[in-house]
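Need the bound structure for iron/sulfur cluster, inputs here:
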Amino acid sequence: MESESKLLIDTSILYRSMQKFYDKRLSTYDLGSGQLPLLLLIYENEGISMQQLAKLGSFDKGTITRGLVKLEEQGYIQIKTNRDDKRIRQLTTCEKTKDIISKAYMIRREWWEQATKELDASQVALFEDLQHRIANRARVMEIDEDRHMRIFGIQKLTLLDYPGKVACTLFSGGCNFRCPYCQNSDLVFLSEDLIEIDRMDMEQFLEKRKGLLEGVCISGGEALLQEGIEELLIRIRQMGYAIKLDTNGSKPKKLKELIDKQLIDYVAMDVKNDPSHYGETIGISDFDLSPIMESVELLKHGRIPYEFRTTVVKEYHNEERLKALAQWLKGGSVYYLQPFVDSEKTILKGLHPHDTQDLYAFQVICNAYIPTKIRGL
Ligand code: SF4
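Answer from helper R.:
Posting the output first, comments after.
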C-alpha cells in the first residue's frame, strides 16, 4: 500500500539508518552520530567560532553547546576564548581527532556507498545535487523565519567600488539618515515598487561567480541596520569572497562586532560634513554625532583597511567646512572627495556639484591633514 506520507517516511528512514550505522561504527571511539558533523566541520574550519559553526550547520544553540562540551571533555576539541574579544569562543581539534579523522571520513563514505549501491554515477550525482538544493532551500526557510538580510539590488560587476578587486555590489534597503543629495531615495524609503532580490537567486549568482569575482560590496541604504547582516556576511565568507562594507558610521558597535568577527575586510565610511554642519547634511537637525565620532576612531585605530569619503555638494560644502572635516579625520589612512551627481532619485531636487577646479582646491586643503584623493571625475 502506497502511503500518503512517503516523503516523510523515506526521510525518517534515511536519517535513522544513517544514525544507527554511525553510532555502531563510532562507538569504538566513544563518539555518537550527532557529534560527527560537529567534529568534521571544526576539522575543516580550524579556529571557527561557536556562532559561525551554529550558522554553518544550522544547529540550534542547545544542541551545539551540549555537543561541544562533550567533545571537549573527550579530548577531541579545544574551546578557547578569542584574545581580542572575550565573547568569541574559538574551536580547534586536538591530536586525538587528527588520529581518527580519516576513519571518520571513511565511515561517512562507507554508509553513502552502501546506501547508493543500486544507483549509477549519474543518478548519485543528480540525487546529491537535488538534495543539496533542497537543503539550501530549507536553510533559507529557517533564515526567513529569523528575519534575514533584505537585498534590493545587485550590481553584477564593478571595477570601482572595491579598491583593487573585481567585485559585485549588493544593495540593502532602509536608512536612518535622509541626506538631501542621496541618490538612493528608493532604497532609503523602500518604495512600494522596489522588488526584493530572492535569496536563493542571490546565492546562486554568488556561487556561479566564484573565481571570477574577488569581492562583494555591501552597500545601502545602511546595511548595519538590518539584523540579518551577520548571517549574510558569514554566507558570503563561506563562498570565499572578500567583503567590503559601505556605512554611514551610525552603528559603531555593530561595525566593531563584525570587524572583530573577521567578517569585513574593508570599510568605506561616509563622513558627511564637519561636526557643526552634520545634522543639516544628513537631513536630521538635532543629530547626536557621538556614534559617528566613535566609528571614525574605531577605523582610525583598527586593524582593517578603510577609507573615509564625502560626497561634495555645493549647497553643503565649502573650503572652511571641508578643512574642519579633514582636521577631524587627521591621522586617517585615506580620504576621498566625490563630486555630487544629480539624478532623478535624489531626495531633494535642485542641488548642484562644485566645479572641478573647486574640487582640486578642496583636495589641496584636506591633503594637509589626511591623504586626499578625488574619485568620480
Ligand atoms: S546617502 Fe547613504 S546615509 Fe545618506 S540617506 Fe542615502 S543611503 Fe542613507
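Comments: The mean pLDDT is 91. The pocket of iron/sulfur cluster is lined by residues 175, 177-179, 182, 184, 188, 220-222, 248, 270 (CB under 6 Å).
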